[in-house]
Specification:
By secondary structure, the chain is mostly helical. The chain has helices spanning 62-71, 82-109, 125-156, 172-181, and strands at 112-113, 119-121. The longest helix is centred in the C-terminal third of the chain and has 32 residues, at 125-156.
Length: 196
C-alpha cells in the first residue's frame, strides 16, 4: 500500500513522493526555475522583491529590463526572460525611432531648393552632425549589449547562445527572432552560473 491520498494522481516512477498538499496539479508541467505556480504569491528574492541578476526576471517591467540590460552588458552566461528581452527591444526601438525623426527634422530645417531642384542651403551642421554621431554611438552600444542579451534569451529557451551565428546566413535573423519568442524551458538552467 502506498501513502497516496485518495483521489490523488500517482507520482511519476522514480521520484520521491511529495507531502500532502504540495503536489503539482495533475497534468501540469513543472514550473521553470524562477517562476511561481499559478495562484501562488510571488516569492521575493531580494530586499526589493526582484530576483538577483544571476536569475531570469519573469514578468519584468520596462524599467527593470532596461536596468538589467546595462548591468549585465557583457554577461553571456545565465538567462533572460522573454519580458526582459522584449521590453528592452521596445525601449531601444522607441529611442532609436525618436532620434532618427529628430535627425531628419533637423536635416530638413535649413534645406531649401530652387526651381531647378538644386539645394540652396544646407542643414545646420552644428546640430545635425552631433545627432548623427549620437545615432551611431547608440547603435554601437546597443549592438554590443544585444549580443549578450540575445545569448541569455536563447539560454532561457534551452538553446545555445551560438545560435546567433544564424545572423550570418540568409534569413537567419528570422530564425533567431522566432527563437526569442519561445517559452522558457527548465533545461535552460544548465546555463546558469552561481554567483554571490
Amino acid at each position: 500500500m502506498t501513502d497516496q491520498q485518495p483521489n490523488q494522481p500517482p507520482q511519476p516512477y522514480g521520484e520521491p513522493p511529495q507531502p500532502y498538499g504540495q503536489q503539482q496539479p495533475y497534468g501540469q508541467p513543472p514550473q521553470p526555475y524562477g517562476q511561481q505556480a499559478p495562484g501562488q504569491a510571488q516569492q521575493p528574492f531580494g530586499t526589493d522583491g526582484t530576483p538577483p541578476l544571476r536569475a531570469p526576471y519573469y514578468g519584468a517591467p520596462l524599467s527593470a529590463a532596461v536596468s538589467r540590460f546595462f548591468r549585465k552588458f557583457f554577461d553571456y552566461s545565465g538567462r533572460a526572460s522573454r519580458s526582459e528581452y522584449w521590453w528592452f527591444a521596445l525601449a531601444q526601438g522607441v529611442v532609436t525611432f525618436g532620434l532618427v525623426i529628430v535627425t531628419g527634422l533637423v536635416a530638413s530645417i535649413g534645406s531649401t531648393v530652387d526651381a531647378t531642384g538644386q539645394a540652396v542651403s544646407d542643414p545646420p551642421l552644428a546640430i545635425f552632425v552631433p545627432l548623427v554621431v549620437l545615432n551611431l554611438l547608440l547603435w554601437l552600444v546597443v549592438l554590443v549589449g544585444s549580443f549578450s542579451l540575445t545569448a541569455r534569451r536563447l539560454h532561457d529557451v534551452g538553446l545555445s547562445g551560438y545560435f546567433q551565428f544564424l545572423y550570418l546566413v540568409p534569413f537567419g535573423s528570422i530564425a533567431v527572432f522566432v527563437m526569442t519568442l519561445l517559452d522558457s524551458k527548465p533545461e535552460g538552467a544548465r546555463f546558469d552560473t552561481p554567483r554571490d
